[in-house]
Design brief:
Blueprint lengths: L1 H37 L7 E4 L3 E4 L4 E6 L3 E6 L19 E7 L1 H4 L9 H11 L4 E7 L5 H10 L8 E7 L2 H4 L37 H4 L1 H9 L1 H11 L2 H9 L30 H23 L3 E7 L2 H4 L1 H10 L12 H12 L4 E3 L1 H7 L16 H20 L3
Parallel strand pairs: 5-6, 5-7, 7-8, 8-9
Antiparallel strand pairs: 1-2, 3-4
Helix pairs in contact: 1-8, 3-15, 4-10
Amino acid sequence: MPGAERRRPLRRAAVLAALVAAGALGALLAFELFVRAFHPMSDFLWEWDPVIGMKLKPGRRGRSVLPGVYDVTVEVNGQGFRDREHEFHKPPGTKRVVLLGDSFLEAVQVPFEDSVGAALERGLVARGIPAEVVSLGVSGAGTVREYLALREYGLRYAPDLVVLLFVENDVSDNSQRLQGATFMPYARLDDRGRLLRDADGRPVFTGFDERKTSSGLRAFLADRLMSLRFARSRIEESPRLNDLLYRLGLMSDPPRAFTVHDADEYGFFEIYRPAPRPGWVEAWSMTEQLLIETRDLAAGGGARFAVALLPGHWSVDRAKWDELCSAVPGMREAGLDLRLPSRRLEAFLAGNGIPVVNLFPSFASGAVGGEPLYLAGDSHWTSAGHALAADVLVPQVVELLGSSR
């Protein structure tokens, strides 16, 4: 009997543990059902790439959704980009255009046929040009990853023309000092602030490895549990919560400094400050050097290179800018110049013989009345925004292709 007496507490503890586990599992299941019913999340479509960090999973088909804003089916080609399949061998007589860019080019917010790449190809064909447009859009990419995407993937298609779609946040995306994400490569600089190069003269990039979050059990769960993706999105939207979980060892990355705003620090919007702070001076220098590297890489592959400047929603819509200024103390009185980045880039590109297509004037005109060009609550382009961008690009691309080698 003494043995039986000793076993009773153990049985009670085991039963209690089973009840707690069952309760936790039931709560998680209820939360999962709640998210699926009332706040569906996009499928986990990305994976770790050893060259450019993260990109779409080759051959994946899934759902991209923001409730009340868009709900789109996304199909990924065999190379891991949201585009149709393209053979590496270029058919005789065909002109090929490779587009480099970030989420604006990846365009998981609209049907593929409405995306800027697909619309540009239709516009070129309508002009009698047997053209093929290859889109290499990667969410979160800056000029570093776009350069690497061209080097690793784009040149295989033997392009006649490479067009980089430049968004203002590319400047901060290029900076490890401003971004500091572990799953991104960053350019390395020497003690003079110039790009560090290897023995072959190519830029050297920082090491990175995020396989732990894009493979194994964590990736399996992220791929299947909307509740997990919902919780992660809420954490990323709160730098303070992100910081707390990072300090507790529950997050692999610290909160990104450029997303934190206070009375004298405007995060990403620091790019509009007329007298940039040291981190932004370095980021600008790195960005400009990388644009030259991308030009030279394209030229080495026999292609012309051009840059299209894409405006942010707030840059062309006064109501959107007023909304942001109301949310970030001090910005309205800080003398920020919304045209500064585009003016600087236009001058730099022209000075280095790089053709530039500035979409700002057309989008500023289109933002007044008419169909919305940007999605509410998302700030990516609507289908109308993609169509306008393609309309602006078509004649410029026709001219550039006509002068390509």
